[in-house]
User: Fold these one by one.
Assistant:
Number 1:
Amino acid sequence: MTSFLQLLLLVLTLNNLALLGVDRLRSLIRLITLQGVLLAGVLLALDHMLLAPAVLIIKGGILPYLLNRTRRRIGAEPHLRPRFGYGWAVLAGMGGLLFSFWLEGRLPMPPGLFPPLLLPAALTTLFCGLVLVVGRVTALSQVMGYLVAENGIFLLGIPLMSAGAIWFELTLLLDIFVAVFVMGIAINHISDTFESIDVNRFHNLRD
Amino acid sequence: MSPLTAYLVQFVLALLLAPLLPGIINRVKAKFAGRHGKPLLQLYFDIFKLLRKGEVVSRSASFVLSLGPAVSLATALCALALLPLGGVTSPLAFQGDFLLAAYLLGLGRFAVILAALDTGSSFEGMGASREATFSALAEPVLFSCLLALACVGGALDLETHLSLSGMLGGRPGTEWLLGRSELLFVPVVLFVLLLVENCRIPVDDPNTHLELTMIHEVMILDHSGPNLAYILYGSALKLWFFAALPAGILVPDFPAWWAQALCWLATILLMAVLVGVVESVMARLRMYSVPRLLGGAGVLAALALILTQIR
């Protein structure tokens, strides 16, 4: 089971770097779906039988569906508009990975709490999410960056979860569910009002 | 059977079977397109035909033109002799021989580039410039792959540590089966390098002879007769070399050398089939996307290197 978990975490890390390298909105949503499925797989490998299907349905089904629906409704541009090049973003992701490994050695964690590779994979996911939020211009891709960062925090939370903390996790899931729901509506409204979801143009707003 | 005999048998087998790989690739492409395709042994026929023919040499060319094919064939042969074929340690193996192998291939490429420039044709100079650019980009990727393997390969055996025989001699195969799945990135990267270094689609199209975007084929336009045969055979050997690299990682240690050799052979032929499939389902990349492809491969190789270092 450990090697299965390791394989999942490796694919997750690759998926993170791929998230930073793709230039199409649809591919981004597909990769985020894959990330949800991988998270469910990680839960399964760590024997959280009940939570895994829930995560699969929410992060691998409902959220991508919502994102796709929003993408279609607002008629978003097929190509992402990066603030800096994709190569730089992937390099930043690699930097995040190295930093995560460095941090793993420095953090005073009780031995055996985190399975090998889980902590760096979670931190890398978090960093990649942040790079997506900072590095992409449209609101929809920033929502996705937020989602990826949240996936990282969720991964960090998995080993800390004891039997009673499952409610905490469920509220986290609902939290993100509501957040994306609200943001979906918000983006709809923004696009209705301003004809564009480019956040740079918010600076130009006057009273 | 002594290891030396086992190695020599496989080396001769590699020399004999190398021209089969392009035949397999062409046959797979033909099957995908619904055609019957060229015979499997077409490259053998071509080489024998060319060896019997005379040569036409441009008046503006010097001796460098005929030096290119000979050097490229010789370097490909030497590089192949450094590989541990079928998991059997090469008799020529020494610490750091991977550097020699990589730069032998580089020397061969340099000779072909010089020969292309020697013809004085601007068309060939353009191809030479592209070949030099892409191979310069591919080199760091190859070395990060080999370094990742060096961290795993000969850690137990000091004699062959840091040699191709230590890196590919069956240990990585055993390691990834035991759960070090990051090693599986390396064959993927090496496959991309195979496509780049051997000028296959999506980087270059080996079937186009008169296109402004071609790379390798344009460099050898002025060669004919036996020299062209040397170039064709040399590139077949190079293809075998690059197909054997993933085999060295994927095939684990077997008790019997012939079982491992058979697995190597099967993996090498499988690589040829895979190249055929990739060439059938993919279009050629635009010229400026090739560095991006190599960059992606480099990221994957760096990831493998980091993960093998840390664990």
Number 2:
Amino acid sequence: MEIDFAQMIFAITNFIILMIAMYFLMYKPLKQTMDKRQDKIKGEIETAEQLKADADQMKAEITAELAKSRETAQEIIVRAEKTAEVQKDEIVLAARAEAQKMIDKAHAEIREEKEKVLGEIRDEAATLAMLAASKLIERSLNDTDHKQLVDKYIEEAGEVQ
Amino acid sequence: MDAVMQVASSEGVHYLAGGHTLWEASAYGFNFSFTMGLTKWMVVFWGVMLFMIIAGTIGARKKALVPSGWQNFSEWTYGGLSNFFSKMIGPHLGKTFGPLLVTFFIFILLSNYSGMLPLNFSMDEGTLSLSNLQAPTSVFSVTAGFALIVFFCTHFAGFKENKLRYFKFFVSPIAFMLPFTIIDVVIHPFTLALRLFGNIHGEETVVEQLMQLSVFVNGWAPAIIEVLGMLFGLIQALIFSLLAAIYISEAAEHF
């Protein structure tokens, strides 16, 4: 077995030179490129995750908002229905009261008219009676004439009426 | 048989320039030397280096957010390996030793495969002949150098993470263990160097010999070994970087 120290020194020095050259020319730049790529990918994944989280949160918010809006709408509808019911009752009551009032008024008018007519009839009758009496006084009447006279008077009254 | 022995013993180191041995010694079956010179595998070493640097620079030049083509392949390679080692030794140690382990894996893999390229031109007696290149990882000096880097990195990691408490590891659980832990510390990088060298050198030697032997139909037998070599090359690169990672994380997590 031969060991030549000059050759050994050649191998060692050249290998160390090769290692240093490879480190600066290949390993270091390659590692930088790969690290940069890794960082970029990591950063992009993080951004994507952040965006997804934001979207999820937004979705939850929108859903909550929608549910709240639906609730509010339902409330409004219920309230409106209640109000409508109350108003309907009020209107019906008012209408009924109005009708009653009108009926009452009509009744009163009818009664009034009736009384007025009756009063007029009564006045007329009195006048006629007065007229008849004056006629009776004007003529001395006998019993036969009396009947004729009354009949005639009634006739006249009928004509006058 | 003589040819096999000869190739195995000489390890096929050819000097293109220089080759003056300044110092030589022999001990425990090892021949130590210090020789100034340029060998063929050094050129291959530089070729692999140059290929890695150019390919890496082109791959990292474009900084598109959506990668495609060569950038995609570079990111896949670097990202995959870096993640693999980071998972194994932890993100803290991975930051310090990740580039070392990734470079080890890619360089050893490409070096192993470079030994299969038939681009070794040689003029023998006036005729041009082509043979496979010599992979840098099939030279023991190179794998030993790599193992030495792992050795220093292991103890640097241990010392950095545990400070002075790290040295307690050598005498734990009792002081009697000191010789054994020292052997352990030496054996780990030694096996690392020997395993890589043995596998790649063995594979190359087998291919070389099969090319020369006339009993096989030329090309077919080496092709089978080359296919296996593709697999071995990957496995050896993986084993070397994996064990280096394990040694580093072991040293760092002592206490």
